[in-house]
TrEMBL record, chain A:
<keyword id="KW-0813">Transport</keyword>
<dbReference type="InterPro" id="IPR052075">
    <property type="entry name" value="Heme_exporter_D"/>
</dbReference>
<keyword id="KW-1133">Transmembrane helix</keyword>
<feature type="region of interest" description="Disordered">
    <location>
        <begin position="50"/>
        <end position="69"/>
    </location>
</feature>
<keyword id="KW-0472">Membrane</keyword>
<feature type="compositionally biased region" description="Basic residues">
    <location>
        <begin position="58"/>
        <end position="69"/>
    </location>
</feature>
<dbReference type="Pfam" id="PF04995">
    <property type="entry name" value="CcmD"/>
</dbReference>
Automatic annotation (TrEMBL), chain B:
<feature type="transmembrane region" description="Helical">
    <location>
        <begin position="162"/>
        <end position="184"/>
    </location>
</feature>
<keyword id="KW-1133">Transmembrane helix</keyword>
<keyword id="KW-1003">Cell membrane</keyword>
<keyword id="KW-0812">Transmembrane</keyword>
<comment type="similarity">
    <text>Belongs to the CcmB/CycW/HelB family.</text>
</comment>
<feature type="transmembrane region" description="Helical">
    <location>
        <begin position="196"/>
        <end position="214"/>
    </location>
</feature>
<feature type="transmembrane region" description="Helical">
    <location>
        <begin position="130"/>
        <end position="156"/>
    </location>
</feature>
UniProtKB/TrEMBL annotation, chain C:
<keyword id="KW-1133">Transmembrane helix</keyword>
<keyword id="KW-0472">Membrane</keyword>
<feature type="transmembrane region" description="Helical">
    <location>
        <begin position="64"/>
        <end position="89"/>
    </location>
</feature>
<keyword id="KW-0201">Cytochrome c-type biogenesis</keyword>
<dbReference type="InterPro" id="IPR002541">
    <property type="entry name" value="Cyt_c_assembly"/>
</dbReference>
<comment type="function">
    <text>Required for the export of heme to the periplasm for the biogenesis of c-type cytochromes.</text>
</comment>
<keyword id="KW-1003">Cell membrane</keyword>
């Protein structure tokens, strides 16, 4: 690599190279965020359940978290 | 033990013979769509014939799977069968009955479809019908064995119907490749015994693993 | 040996596994980020162009394509191994591992297909080639999606676990059969082997192996994150999960 210009355009193939890297980044980041959210919402759910008075537990238990796949 | 189970399967199937005829009808109808969609030109149809007939056979095998398992699962008789005998032998009897009542009729019907698809057009001394029948004869049992595994796995699932197709079709690809290419090789006047040998090898592998896997899966679905 | 065995048993305990993975995760992320930073520097900037086959800059796509393709296969094999462990030793956590690998594995398979297709356009002049690797990769994606579809179709989790574990094992037996069938079917396959000596010049090896290592660890980190969520999902009623979830809220009220 000799210049920034070459780095961006990759000698005519810029669109191919950058779209590959961008797609990889987006998909993996999407998974990362999805899994984080899943754990967080589960935690919140358990929390509200633990805080709720016992007669309300039955109701709270029915809340279900959506699973990102 | 297995012969008693098999007799039961055949008895149950006899009561539902229309259900068994439907996949065969489907087989013929799907194939007869191609001349309308592509072209009635004989050479074109001949080129398509191996693939079209094989894909149609594969789909009608998938369609016919349900009736050998679903009703037995729903009315609880599968549970009874599993109490009486080993899961593997229940699986073997079902697989064998499925092949006998769907796979074998497909093999017997295939010359008719070969005729519709002009499989012998332009050949005077060679008859490709036998090759088509032989390839289906060796390939359809493997389709039954793999299908049994998929069907047993999805019995207890909430969704049915299409789910089993999605699970099983990727596993059907090798059989489809070699089944269709046996006939193609014959059409191109090449030797096809290698392809047949590989179809036979697939059958052997499937016979070793599939009844056991299917039996385990039946047990899980019922238990 | 006895120690290793005991450790294996401890991993079967959801609480232990959750705690341990929580301790490992920051380290794994740290190393992953360093490796990926170095790998990206080499693969996008410091590595030379490919001149021998006239690929030029498109060779850079290989540095994400090869790791994605490798992980898609390794992921499925790992799923099958965990499935066998689960079925043979009746280890419930193994099923959670199988389920956790699936989404990351499917993502890697998709990425291998996407980058392969984007690589194919300038190299072969077509977005899609029915060659052995691309076609097997497509079928592998169907196997992953089939696993996820099957697992999510049961109301009872133990049935879902066992049935889809069997599917994973049947699938792994079929992968080599599918691969060789497709390869035989289309011998136009272009061999581009990494392990063959002399196939890859050293200046390409540095970025490739750094990216491989980085992506492996990233994959592991993603699987572990999904696994931690899966563990909580499966143990919502356990006392330790309640304690874990309420630990920081208690701290707030006490302060």
């Amino acid at each position: 690599m000799t210049s920034w210009h070459e780095f961006i355009f990759m000698g005519k193939h810029g669109a191919y190279v950058w779209s590959s890297y961008l797609m990889t980044f987006v998909v993996l980041l999407g998974l990362l965020i999805g899994f984080r959210k899943m754990l967080k919402s589960l935690k919140k759910q358990v929390q509200t359940e633990a805080m709720a008075p016992s007669e309300k537990r039955q109701k709270a238990r029915k809340l279900k978290v959506s699973q990102p796949d | 033990m297995i012969s008693t189970l098999l007799k039961r399967e055949l008895k149950v199937a006899r009561r539902n013979w229309i259900g068994l005829a439907i996949p065969l009808l489907f087989f013929i109808i799907v194939v007869s769509l191609f001349p309308f969609a592509v072209s009635p030109e004989a050479l074109m149809l001949q080129k398509l014939a191996p693939g079209v007939i094989w894909v149609a056979a594969l789909l009608s095998m998938l369609l016919s799977l349900e009736q050998f398992y679903r009703s037995d699962y729903q009315d609880g008789s599968l549970e009874q069968l599993l109490l009486m005998s080993s899961p593997t032998s229940v699986a073997i009897s079902k697989i064998f009955a499925h092949w006998l009542l769907t796979g074998l009729p497909l093999v017997i019907l295939s010359p008719l479809l070969g005729l519709l698809m002009q499989i012998n057009y332009g050949f005077e001394h060679i008859n490709h019908t036998w090759v088509l029948m032989l390839s289906l004869m060796l390939g359809t049992p493997t389709l039954c064995l793999l299908g049994a595994v998929g069907m047993s796995l999805t019995l207890a699932a909430n969704r049915n119907g299409l789910l089993v197709s999605i699970l099983i079709i990727p596993l059907y690809v090798p059989v489809l490749i070699f089944g269709a290419s046996t006939v193609t090789a014959s059409l191109e006047s090449l030797r096809y015994n290698g392809e047949l040998a590989i179809l036979g090898a697939f059958l052997m592998i499937a016979i070793v693993f599939a009844p056991f896997a299917s039996g385990r899966a039946l047990k899980i679905s019922v238990g | 040996m006895a120690k290793a065995w005991r450790w294996f048993h401890q991993l079967g305990s959801p609480k232990y596994l959750f705690q341990k993975t929580g301790q490992w995760l920051p380290w794994i992320w740290g190393v992953t980020l360093i490796l990926l930073a170095v790998g990206l520097y080499y693969s996008l900037w410091a590595s030379p162009l490919e001149a021998r086959q006239g690929q030029g800059h498109t060779v850079r796509i290989m540095y994400v394509h090869v790791p994605a393709a490798a992980l898609s296969m390794v992921g499925y094999i790992a799923m099958a191994i965990a499935a066998i462990v689960g079925l043979v030793w009746k280890m419930k956590m193994a099923f959670a591992v199988v389920r956790s690998i699936a989404p990351a594995g499917a993502a890697m398979t998709f990425l291998a297909l996407f980058t392969g297709s984007v690589w194919g356009k300038p190299t072969w002049g077509t977005w899609w080639e029915w060659d052995a690797r691309m076609t097997s990769e497509l079928l592998l994606l169907f196997l992953y999606l089939g696993y996820i579809a099957l697992h999510s179709s049961f109301s009872e989790r133990s049935k879902a676990d066992k049935a889809s574990a069997i599917l994973a094992i049947v699938g792994v037996i079929n992968i080599p059969i599918i691969y060789f069938s497709v390869k035989w079917w289309n011998t136009l396959h272009q061999g581009y082997s990494v392990t063959q000596k002399g196939a890859l010049a050293p200046e390409f090896q540095v970025p490739l192996f750094t990216m491989l290592a980085g992506m492996y660890l990233l994959f592991a980190a993603l699987v572990i994150m999904r696994l931690r969520a899966e563990i909580i999902l499966r143990n919502q009623k356990s006392r330790w999960v309640m304690e874990w979830a309420t630990a920081d809220t208690k701290k707030v009220t006490h302060d």
